[in-house]
Amino acid sequence: MVKSSAARPNDVTFVSILSACSHAGLLLQGIEIFHMMVNDYGLHPGSEHYGIVVDLLGRTGELEKAMDIINRMPVPVEPLVWGALLAACRIHHNVEIGEVAAKNLLCLDSNHAGYYILLSNMYGVDGKWGNLAKIRSLIKEKGLKKMIGQSMIEIRNEVHSFVADDKLHPECEKIYELVGQLEVILKLQLQHI
To answer: Exposed (0-12), middle (13-18) or buried (19+): which is 94, by Cβ within 10 Å?
Structure first.
């Protein structure tokens, strides 16, 4: 990150940078940037920043360190932080820490179907079929439904909402045409890498 620029990064800038580090698996760089945010720029990390650091540590299998970060957070631990940890526990087969994350998640929001599904998937990956069945039964008992993924964008003070395979947007033909063009461009670019 260039520090000599006249423009000062803000907390949103660091959310973007940390997220990029997480998705690229750049553990050391992400931790360094997190410390830079606090020490060099005097910004106070929020739950979203901590959630990304937990995600970063989780993606690289550093679940105990992620748990340590959570235990030392000076801000309230929001569901996105516990959700990042639970997702990492599923990937890295750590049921013990995953159950701690799930317990905290469900205390914060017991009606979010996605958390139960993530927990049941963790049990399935680990072959704990009895636990998986209990969670799936609980989902049915509570009448929970998984929400579909949705993206939103604001253009000229008008909010546009999108879901996968959405054909209801008034300009869906133009949108899918543009997406198709972008796919072609990306495929051509990948051939040259």
So the answer is: buried
Angle, alpha carbons 12-83-49 (nearest 5°):
20
Residues 87 and 134 in one domain: yes
Asked if 157 and 117 sit in the same domain, the reply is no
The answer to whether the predicted template modeling score (pTM) of the entire model surpasses 0.70 is yes
CA atoms within 13 A on the CB side of 147: 8
Domain count, the chain: 2
User: Over the stretch 96-153, which tens digit does the pLDDT of each residue have?
Assistant: 999 999 999 999 988 888 888 889 989 988 889 999 899 999 989 988 887 666 676 6
Q: Looking at residue 35, which CATH number applies to its domain?
A: 1.25.40.10
Q: Examine the pLDDT at 90 and tell me if it is beyond 70.
A: yes
Same domain, 88 and 160: no
- The parent domain of residue 132 ranges over 11-145
- Using CA atoms, how far residue 19 sits from 24, 48, 49, in Å, is 9, 10, 9
